[in-house]
Design a protein that fits this description.
384 residues, alpha/beta, TIM Barrel, 13 helices, 11% strand
Length: 384
């Protein structure tokens, strides 16, 4: 398929230089909570206010909502990521100490589904309306848990095991067959956003790059035509490739997901956000806490660092949301306390003062130093 103003040799060269990393819309329009500071303006009549909020899914006046680019969906500024890292904090020794997005045993762990159910229920109470599931175990677990409350969440979906990360799923037909199988297995009729996970390991040559992109955009287009996905997009760990995809296929790439942490900054030129704004793409920030390396403690409630880590989480979320091109960060919250702490960030002042900036800068330097070997690639997302 035709590309949009991109030199593929430059892309492949950039991909080769970033091999370590690969291995490892318009400005947001918001409906802010009543406590958020905003420029003084005339109060809208009650009827006008009702009209502005009636189409917001699971609306709560204490939550902020941002427009998800060209989709027009109003999404909660704090949304729920599908990962359940550190779940052993909730479930004890029964749960594995490290999250795996290929481990199908989670729903069978005592208390796991009940724990996830409590978090979903509390998210509904807080006005959170977007849930992102990116791997087979997540889709299967949340598919069960959404029964009876599918009308409370927009569901973002990827099942990377049956997407182009696996070479056998690099045709449109194989992608659609995988989608059909997965929806049936999860008890879902459709997803709100199919955001295909692009290969992390890169592509070996130009022909394979073409194959991946062609399969992706054709598969997404057909899924939308068939009513299996309302909106479409991609997630990527490669900034150059993601920017190129947004520019080349604006019709199919309505939503993008990419790492955006407490230490990420917008490039002054040639930024990914240039393409996002120009093409009015919705943008979710993954890894807001950099695989939990932002935190000094274990995450257990009685940890001596618990209060400081809660504060770091809120500072990070406020910082990320100060970029209006980010629709929402999607932390993988594992308990009600984490949900409440994240929602509290919405009600706090958005812009960090000088002392808070210095505090977050110190935490960020420690975050980069604590990154696990498997997440060193996040350093390539310091500038976006």
């Amino acid at each position: 398929m035709a590309r949009h103003e991109m030199d593929r040799r430059d892309f492949l060269a950039a991909g080769a230089l970033a091999a370590g990393a690969l291995a490892g819309g318009a400005e947001a329009q918001t409906q802010a909570p009543s406590k958020a500071k905003a420029p003084a303006q005339a109060k809208a009549p009650a009827a006008a206010k009702q009209a502005a909020t009636k189409n917001i899914l699971n609306y709560n006046p204490n939550m902020e909502y941002r427009r998800l680019g060209k989709t027009g969906l109003m999404v909660s500024a704090i949304s729920l990521g599908g990962h359940w890292k550190r779940i052993e904090i909730e479930l004890g020794k029964a749960a594995p100490a490290r999250y795996s997005d290929s481990d199908f045993s989670y729903p069978n762990i005592p208390g796991f589904m009940q724990s996830r159910d409590r978090v979903l229920a509390h998210c509904i109470e807080c006005g959170i309306n977007y849930l992102d599931a990116m791997a087979a175990p997540e889709v299967l677990a949340y598919g069960q848990l959404l029964k009876g409350r599918r009308d409370k969440f927009y569901l973002g979906y990827a099942w990377w095991q049956k997407e182009p990360r696996s070479p056998q799923f690099r045709t449109a037909n194989s992608l659609l067959q995988g989608l059909d199988e997965n929806l049936k297995a999860a008890g879902l009729d459709y997803v709100d956003i199919w955001r295909i996970a692009l290969p992390m390991e890169g592509v070996p040559d130009l022909n394979e790059l073409e194959r991946v992109e062609t399969a992706t955009v054709e598969g997404l287009a057909k899924a939308k035509q068939q009513g299996k996905a309302r909106f479409t997009g991609v997630s990527s760990h490669n900034r150059v490739w993601l920017k190129s995809m947004i520019e080349a296929y604006p019709k199919q790439i309505e939503v993008v997901l990419f790492p955006y942490t407490a230490g990420s900054k917008e490039l002054p030129t040639d930024s990914l956000f240039d393409a996002i704004k120009e093409n009015n793409a919705g943008a979710f920030g993954i890894k807001p806490f950099a695989d939990n390396s932002l935190f000094a403690g274990t995450g257990f409630p009685n940890d001596p660092h618990a209060a400081d880590d809660d504060r770091r989480a809120r500072l990070a979320l406020r910082y990320i949301l100060s970029n209006p091109a980010i629709t929402a960060p999607i932390p993988g919250m594992i308990n009600i306390h984490q949900v409440d702490n994240a929602v509290q960030a919405i009600r706090e002042r958005r812009q960090l003062d000088l002392n808070e900036k210095a505090e977050l800068d110190r935490a960020t330097r420690q975050m980069w130093a604590r990154l696990s070997p498997g997440h060193q690639w996040l350093k390539d997302w310091e500038y976006v």
